[in-house]
Amino acid sequence: MIGEDATAVFNMLSSEPESWNQLAVAPLWLRGKFLSWIKRETEFAKSGRPAYIIAKMNSLCDKGIIAALYEASAAGVKIDLIIRGICCVKAGIPGVSENIRVRSIVGTFLEHSRIFCFGNGGNEEIYMGSADWMPRNLDRRVEITFPVLDPSVRAKVRHILEVELEDTVRARIMKMDESGQYERIDKRGKEIVDSQDVFCKEAEAEAVRRVLYLAKLAGDAPVYIVHLSCKESLEAVEEARRNGQKNIFVETCTQYLTLTEDRYKDPDGLKYIMSPPLRTQQDLDALWKGLEAGEIQIVATDHCPFNYAKEKQDGKDDFRKCPNGAPGVEERMILLFSEGVMKNKISINKLVEVACTNPAKVYGMYPKKGIIEPGADGDLVIIDADAKQTLTHKMMHGAVDYTSYEGTDLHGKIDLVMQRGNIIAENNEFKGNRGDGKYLYRKPFLGDL
To answer: Strand pairing partners for 80?
Structure first.
């Protein structure tokens, strides 16, 4: 039926359709549909049945729609409007708009969805489309609005509305005093909800769920999830494992265990532009617990060293032009020891497991690497657990001009590093020789961790 409507949309330039099955189309029919849906809620409210409207869009300035909303509000319809830009409705007019609540959410990302939810007497209907409630959209453009029929999609769309209605960080609320002015939410005593942060993390979790679903369809094909950064993604992994899925290997990175999104507020925030971005302290705490529980099996770095004074400056006026990534391979081990072991988040055994043994297994180098036993390479790191120091760029040996962890207080110090029984670093001085490296032959990893 929607396919027939879609064909009719393209044909309407030459001939007017006799009827529509599912779509509501401007410029000839959409205004009438919106007005009828609003009027229906008004009648439900007058008869004592559930009546509400939730509408999310960019702008609302159509006089006819506004008049219908005022009439609905006066009849008792509860109306929540999420309007990013222009809104000509005034909330709080006695006897007119006392049941209308308006909020505007403007953040880092441009949100462009239009969602319309109607209570429909207890049989809720949800629509999505391209049109704002503006004369130009309703009367002078070809615009389409369609019903959301699939239950799972309806749930996701409803969730978007609910999260934005709970936002306490980005949202500005129109005062209920007829002024049409907005004010920030008083967050004292309220849960901190940043809708854009929620949606970003849900996007990562959705990607994790999809790849796990595809792996399940392929007979539990081995899948390696890189750079897992948030609690929601970890929960997706845990859910798949509870449902019996095998061969899931999960990696996070040092930065997602030690740095938060607050770094983006710093004057040198360009240093921390990476994918995924840094998250919240709540996510850090969840990832540490995931490590200790074995849900996350590997800690890597995504070492991507662009110079801050050069390449990173491409983004000084437009962050989208900043190269993605940060250095971190040299800092990984001591940060895991100091932040993990010395703060009792993971055991020393778990550190060896996630930083040495498991990577060697997954990448086909075990038991040559990742274990100390006869026949294995004698690779050792000796750490002074009592030493304390502050991590600075001057301590680093790489060519990049900064460390993401500048000024971090460390509990522990790497005294000695051995490769195949030979000392290659001692007291932060490199002692290796050119040509010491050897090609590592690998084999497929078909086991479990």
So the answer is: 54, 101
Helix pair angle (63-75, 30-46), 10° resolution? 10
Question: Of 157, 91, 81, which Cα lies nearest the Cα of 124?
Answer: 157
Q: What pLDDT does residue 74 have?
A: 97
Residue 357's pLDDT band (boundaries 50, 70, 90)?
very high
DSSP annotation of 340 reads I
**Is the bond leading into 27 cis (omega within 30 degrees of zero)?**
yes
Phi, psi of 386 (to 5 degrees): -90, -20
CB 296 within 8 A of CB 249: no
Q: Quick one: angle between helices 151-166 and 195-217, nearest 10? A: 150
- Count Cβ atoms below 10 Å from residue 45 Cβ, excluding itself: 22
Residue 345 host element (H or E): none
CA–CA gap between residue 336 and residue 334 (Å, rounded): 5
φ, ψ of residue 334 in degrees (nearest 5): -70, -30
> 313 near 273, Cβ under 8 Å?
no
Q: Minimal CA–CA distance to 277: which of 109, 39, 55? A: 109
For the beta carbon of residue 99, count every other beta carbon within 10 angstroms.
22
Interatomic CA distance for residues 10 and 18, integer angstroms:
14
Among 126, 201, 198, 189, residue whose Cα is nearest residue 167: 198
Q: Burial, 117: exposed, middle or buried (Cβ in 10 Å; 0-12, 13-18, 19+)?
A: buried
* DSSP state string for 52-68: EEEEEES-B--HHHHHH
- Helix (H, G, I), strand (E, B), or coil: what is residue 339? helix
Tally the C-alpha atoms within 13 A of residue 59's C-alpha that lie toward its C-beta: 11
Handedness of CA 34, 37, 40, 45 (dihedral sign): negative
3-state SS, residue 129: strand
Residue type, 102: V
Query: Which H or E element spans position 302?
Result: none
**Maximum Cα interatomic distance, the chain, rounded to a whole number of Å:** 86
Distance CA 90, CA 178 (A): 5
User: How many whole angstroms separate alpha carbon 318 and alpha carbon 321?
Assistant: 6
H or E, element range at 125: strand 125-129
Of the pLDDT bands very low, low, confident and very high (cuts 50, 70, 90), residue 292 is very high
Task: Report yes or no on whether pTM surpasses 0.90.
Answer: no
pLDDT for res 107:
82
For residues 376-387, average pLDDT: 95
Backbone angles phi and psi of 212, in degrees to 5: -65, -35
Please compute the mean of the pLDDT values over residues 205-231 and round it to a whole number: 97
